[in-house]
Amino acid sequence: MEKSVTDVFHSLDGLLPQNWSSRSQVTHGGTRPDFVLNDLTGERAWLDLTSANSTYHIFDKTGSGWSTRDYVFEIAYTPLDLGTILRYGGMVAGIKARRAHESRENKMTDMIGKLRTDLVVLKSQYDVSKPARTSEAFSAYYGFKFSHKTIRSLIEIAELNLATFGYQSEQANGRDRATAMQFIDARYNN
User: Fold this and answer.
1) Which pLDDT belongs to residue 37?
2) Judging by beta carbons within 10 Å of its beta carbon (0-12, 13-18, 19+), is residue 122 exposed, middle or buried?
3) CB-facing half-sphere around the CA of 123: CA atoms within 13 A
4) Tell me, what's the pLDDT at 85?
5) Domain spans of the chain?
6) Average pLDDT over residues 66-81
7) Whole-model pTM above 0.70?
8) 3-class secondary structure per residue, the chain
9) Ramachandran assignment for 159, one of left (phi > 0), alpha (psi -120 to 50 degrees), beta (any other)
10) Strand 42-51's sheet: what is its strand order?
């Protein structure tokens, strides 16, 4: 808990007055305030992050310096129970999974965009008026031979019209999406 709050606390340093700074976990003899605020003259405030069950414990420490400081403050948080921690852990796992999924989707969208661009260029440079010519064009453009099923799958994945690549309805049967996806991943995943 304290590590997370420390990270947030230090992210707010820009809101401190000019020439002020913060430090965390500053040891003073037998005590260690979680946060110390400093200006040019020295330490100005000690802050302690404390479970609500332990408030005022800093004043129980004899000779620690807490009672001699001009400004001392406890930041209390509600203690966490195991159920809350487990629910939070599940939420974090879900958020991480969703972000990973979104990242994969964004990457796939990018790769399909690159495929679409390549196919538009291929179509502008080669005769793709018939399936046989489209197959030859793919071989020439990419440097190896594709099956018609894979070519049709690539065209569909790129959301282009099969007919503009010479595939009429009777020639447009069958797909090999798995091979098409392997090709997209190998070619455009960089």
Assistant:
1) 87
2) middle
3) 19
4) 66
5) 2-79, 101-188
6) 78
7) no
8) CHHHHHHHHHHCHHHCCCCCEEEECCCECCECCCEEEEECCEEEEEEEEEEHHHCCHHHHCCCCCHHHCCCEEEEEECCCCHHHHHHHHHHHHHHHHHHHHHHHHHHHHHHHHHHHHHHHHHHHHCCCCCHHHHHHHHHHHHCCCCCHHHHHHHHHHCCCCHHHHCCCHHHCCCCCHHHHHHHHHHHHCC
9) left
10) 21-24, 35-39, 42-51, 72-77
Compute how many other C-beta atoms are within 10 angstroms of the C-beta atom of residue 85: 11
Residues 6+ apart with CB under 8 A from 107: 189
Q: Which residue has the higher pLDDT, 180 or 173?
A: 180
CA distance 138 to 157: 15
- The encoded tokens of residue 134 equal 């489209």
Please provide the CATH number assigned to the domain covering 2-79. Answer: 3.90.1570.20
pLDDT surpassing 70 at residue 62? no
Identify the residue with better confidence: 10 or 73.
Answer: 73
pLDDT confidence tier of residue 33, bands split at 50, 70 and 90: confident
Q: Is the pLDDT of residue 91 over 80?
A: no
